[in-house]
Design a protein that fits this description.
36% of the residues lie in helices and 24% in strands. The chain is built from ten helices and 14 strands. α8 packs antiparallel against α9. The strands form two sheets. The chain has a ten-stranded mixed sheet, sandwiched between helices. It has a four-stranded mixed sheet with strand order 3-2-6-7. The protein is globular. It has two domains: 177 residues, 3-Layer(aba) Sandwich (UDP-N-acetylmuramoyl-L-alanine:D-glutamate ligase); 130 residues, Ribokinase (UDP-N-acetylmuramoyl-L-alanine:D-glutamate ligase), CATH 3.40.1190.20. It is α/β, with parallel strands linked by helices. The structure holds adenosine-5'-triphosphate and magnesium ion. The site of adenosine-5'-triphosphate has 20 residues, from α8 and α9.
């Protein structure tokens, strides 16, 4: 079983307008609400791919109830920790004429010490013990910046493998606890390592450096250029099939889901990387906030090229 932790879930509201005009009243042509938050996305994809998962994290308010309702509709299991505040709402405006997307993200509710304590207690006592704990996304106000470091250290004490997918200070602090797997994109890796990744050689050096810092599997994702993957034994270049992209939202989360699902089933790094790239690429085929579909992942799998460097 793969447990995911989303400290800062959201209810994402996507509206489409024929043409966005600022300073004017605009009329939307469609509105959808989706569960948001990177860990929750990973759980949704693992479920879609036939794996077992439970989503953990904070939930509160009317939007929190709506998020739970949507997850139930998708049949994604969850065990959230209730908070007094309301989860955040992110807004995405899609302009149908220019196809440009405008996002307006919220920081999230304030979490009390008591609420944080309850969540830590819950995820350190998950039974049966999950194969992997995936920590993903931003951290809401009130929660210390080194929260992922604390949680990864707790998981290690219980013998649970961990994945960290975050950015900025949360990634920098969290990585000090040596999570088993990380998958920054190029921009996140540049910030983390304080380097400029101008070409492939520099990216390869960076995954090696991360493995040398005791990360078991270090991956840098490169959008349409696929992935560079390293563990203690090998370095792989994973080339995604070229497809007609509709929306890249959730590509990274789908990548992590494909990877971790296969690792948890005992597959080697090549096979897991192949699933990672197929799931990430499949996510780009679906519109808006939709994640990947299983049939697309299975169709793309044989088209992913995995080269050993
Ligand atoms: N345009 C694309 N064409 C084909 N595959 C893609 C494209 N964009 C992403 N992918 C696939 O998805 C993977 C993850 O994408 P990316 O590197 O953009 O992740 P990310 O920045 O973490 O995304 P997210 O915004 O979801 O966090 C890529 O390594 C690739 O396999
Ligand atoms: Mg990402």
């Amino acid at each position: 079983m793969i447990a995911t932790v989303t400290l800062n879930p959201s209810l994402d509201r996507t509206v489409t307008v024929e043409e966005l005009v600022v300073d004017e009243a605009n009329r939307w042509t469609s509105l959808r609400r989706d569960p948001g938050g990177k860990g929750i996305n990973v759980s949704r994809v693992i479920h879609e791919l036939g794996g077992e998962t439970v989503a953990y994290g904070f939930i509160g308010g009317i939007d929190g109830e709506t998020l739970k309702h949507l997850l139930k509709q998708h049949e994604v299991p969850f065990d959230f920790t209730s908070i007094k505040g309301e989860i955040r709402s992110n807004f995405i405006i899609t302009d149908l004429k220019t196809r440009r997307q405008t996002r307006i993200d919220a920081p999230g509710p304030h979490i009390s010490r008591d609420e944080l304590g309850k969540l830590i207690d819950k995820i350190t006592h998950i039974k049966p013990k999950p194969d992997f704990l995936v920590f993903a996304g931003s951290v809401p106000p009130g929660v210390p910046d080194d929260i992922y470091r604390q949680l990864i250290e707790e998981a290690r004490k219980s013998g649970i493998k961990t994945v960290l997918d975050s950015d900025n200070k949360w990634l920098k602090e969290g990585i000090r606890a040596k999570p088993n797997v990380i998958k920054p994109n190029v921009h996140e890796a540049e910030e983390l390592l304080e380097v400029h990744l101008r070409d492939e050689a520099a990216i390869i050096e960076s995954v090696k450096a991360l493995v040398n810092r005791s990360i078991e599997v270090a991956i840098i994702s490169r959008g349409k250029d696929g992935l560079i993957v390293a563990n203690g034994e090998k370095i792989l270049k994973v080339i995604s099939p070229q497809v007609e992209v509709r929306s890249t939202v959730g590509a990274g989360d789908s990548t992590i889901a494909g990877l971790v699902l296969k690792l948890s089933q005992g597959h080697g790094i090549e096979e897991a990387s192949r699933w990672a790239a197929a799931a990430g690429t499949a996510a780009t085929l679906t519109p808006g906030t939709e994640l990947c579909r299983r049939e697309d992942v299975e169709r793309l799998l044989p088209q992913v090229k995995v080269e050993r460097l």
